[in-house]
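Quarterly update from the structural biology core.
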Amino acid sequence: MMSTSAGSFSQVLAFMMAMGNTYGVLLITVLMGSGLVSLPKRLWAMSDSEEELRRLYLLAAPIEDSYQEARYELEDCELEVKKVSEMLEQSGPGSDLGQSIGEYVEILKSKVANFTFAGRSSSRAFGKNHPSLNRNYSSKFEMVALHQRLITAQLKARASEQRWRHLVKECKIYQVSENFNLITFKNGHDMSSSLMILQI
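Predicted structure, tokenized:
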């Protein structure tokens, strides 16, 4: 800059200070970032197939609990939709209830029908103290709240199902490398028995 007379000494000094400051910030970010240490450690741990398989087996229980909890929440919401649909059918399409919440119920029924979930059970029933027994389903606000609960439950169910399937897939890979028996995945129901106990 000075050789071409494009800038003064003070401008060059300011430029060099800015470059030094930028280099320092980048250096601190790289050296203090957890990825600089965590990534090599994770790759090193993954190279030990037996230890990685142990880790996956330990993760199986909490992941399955999350899966079952999401399944129950989804089934509760779907059971509520079924209950509201039956109430609407009993009152008739031309009734006050049908005119008030008929469109909302059709939306809820389509959401349930278009959602596929392998772990769904048809034997779910409300307990004596279930909150749905005290809800006023003739209210539009309650229909909106039910729709929100249903969408949330579907998202949680899909996420937990994907986590479980990913775990099963990883276990299969490491079991093959360790000459273990393969995992059998039984449609998402008997999930605990689908993970073989580590043979030592």
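Residues 180-189, 196-200 have pLDDT under 50 and may be disordered.
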